[in-house]
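Task 17 of the worksheet. Students: predict the tertiary structure of the chain below and write it out as structure tokens. Keep your answer in the requested format; marks are given for formatting as well as content.
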Amino acid sequence: MYAIIATGGKQYKVAEGDEIRVEKLDVETGSEITFDQVLAVSGETFKAGADVADASVTATVTAQGRGKKVIVYKYKRKTGYHKKNGHRQAYTQVKIDKINA
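Model answer:
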């Protein structure tokens, strides 16, 4: 059984026991979180839309962190313009406990 959830402007396909990294959520490590925005659920049959209006996915927060550094380098020729910038995206790692469909 799997579900498709939406959080942080992205969609994730999850199953029970999966560990995924989502956009940073303001919750403590070890706490439980519920994703209410379920787009589809597939078990014996595939359900989407109004059929999954009351579905939810329960997960436990396992870690908070920041990803690998991405270098952003801007350059314009003939003008002497160089700009180097780095970025580390913050994330929350969650473990999917249960799909309530």
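Marker's comment: The two ends are 10 Å apart (CA to CA). DSSP finds no helices and ten strands in the chain.
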